[in-house]
Every structure is written in structure tokens, then in C-alpha cells.
Amino acid sequence: MTNIVHRVAGWFFSGNSGMEDVGSIKVYKNTNHPTKAWSEISVKQTVNKVVPLSPDTPISVDKLRVVCISDTHTKIEAVPKIVPDGDILIHAGDFTNVGLANEVKKFNAFLGSLSHQVKIVIAGNHDLTFDDEMVNNRRDYLRRNFGVSEKGFEQLLETYNVQHVKELLTNCVYLEDAGIDVCGVHIYGSPWQPEFCDWGFNLPRGEKCLEKWNLIPSSTDILITHGPPIGHGDACFDKNRAGCVELLSTIQQRVKPKYHIFGHIHEGYGVTSDGHTTYINASTCTLRYRPDHAPVVFDYPVPEGHMKDELLKISPQRLIRSAFH
Ligand code: MN
Ligand code: MN
Description:
By secondary structure, the chain is α/β, with parallel strands linked by helices. The chain is built from 11 helices and 16 strands.
């Protein structure tokens, strides 16, 4: 058994990497055709609709109240009013439109206005400047998305490397293929998704995506990715499926988290279950980019041997400073 210590924001959790059974997940034959793949796989799958917890439910001392949002795309003026109180806030990516510094700053200020003790954020395909490959090797593409001239772009980059952009997120823990231990609950975040109009954190379906999912420790309790797995919260407006087959396989056959939180397919908003894992598409914005979907709330029992008081010791500043050492 290989034990990998995952670098996290100030914490380390020693995840069983699952190396011994990682190889058991195989790329599905029709993985490049997710709609067809789902029509084949769904015969043996359970997808139950779940009514999420009411945000008015009193917060209990022995449960962590988790509040999930995603895909806010800078439309956050109205959102603080609708974000319920809780212990942990999770944002599953696409907090900007193209990853400009002013968009990131606006999002960070929004996070600062919320009272949750721990805020956890991952990037999505729209958060272009968080993708190292994009900034280092695909500058022309980035420049076109920013809508600036060559000269303007050079100036922009001078004060604007990737590391700098990530450091603008001072009011949260930013996870990129990394995990954090919160009161004994293992939370892991990954921004990757199958190719979608050639944006950030895109990978070809199949092997390349599976390589990223193989990094998820088997001890993960709450998994955050930007994109959905196949069959849960991934139905597009045109009835096609957009989810990743290998992500569902990894979740069901190896990691078996209690919760999987994602966004990306705005119209797939909602909560489902396969009988073990609860799948939450927390997209705040609708298909038309209006921030109309309510945050999704759930309670996670504090594991034995842990106290909710431990949350008080986790300050976002402390976490974020450690994250860049
Ligand atoms: Mn989005
Ligand atoms: Mn997206």
C-alpha cells in the first residue's frame, strides 16, 4: 500500500492513495460519447432525486453545516443575501468569466462578506488564469479571451502571473488536486473536466481525466470537482449528457465519498443519489447566467474523536499563507 501525503492549505492529510486498486478503474469503451455511454450504463445505475435540507433547519453542535454554491460568474451582488449561514462554504468553480484580476478581487471580497468559518474554493474552466498551462503556453488564446491588444496583454501579464492571481484569494482555501482535513472530514478538490469548448483545465476524455481522478485519495469524504460525473446533474438543455464516465467509475468503485459537489452544467442544478453518494450540482447561475439557483445545504456529522470547536482554530488567513509556502 502506498501512502501519499497530499499537500494542502496548511494541513496535510495522509490519504490512502488507493494505488493498489487505482488500476482497477478502466476507461469505458464509449467514453468519448457520453450520451451514448449513459444510455448503456444507466441500465445498471440508480439515480434518485434528493430533496435538499432546508436552510432553516437549526444548526446542530454535532454536525457541520455545509453550504454549496458554484458558477457564480461574477454575478454576486445579490448572492450574499441568499447564502444561508453554515460552518463550511464550498464553491465548485467558475467564479469568474475569464479569470481577470478584478473578477477575482470581486469574488474574494464577496467571500470576505460571508460568515462561514471555513470557505473552500476550486477553479473551473472559466477561471482561465488559474490554469498554469493556459498562462504559460497558450497566451494568444488567453489574450483573445481578455479582448486586449498584444501590448496591453504584455502589460497585463507583467503584474499578473498565475501565482499572483491565486494569491488574490485571501478569504478562502483554494484546492487544486489537493485536500484539506476539516474536523476529521477529508475534503478534496480538483478543477479538471472533459474538454468543453477549449477552455481552462480541459482534458481529453478517458485516460487523461482518469489520471487526475487517480490522484483522489480513497479516504475522501467530500469530493469537489468542477464538472459532473456521467448521469448526475450533467443533462444539458439539449438532452445530451456532458459528465465524465471515469469520474463516476472512480467515485463508485474506489473513492465512495459521502458527497460529490460540482457545477459547470448550469441547467443540471439539483441533488441526486446513487444510494451511497449524494451528488450536488450547485450551479448558482442558470443556463442564461442569472444567479437564480439557491445554495444547496447539507449537514455532515462530526466524526468520532473530533469536536466542532476545531473549526475555530482554522482561520482562512492562516490557511492561505501556508498554502503558498
Ligand atoms: Mn459555469
Ligand atoms: Mn464551467
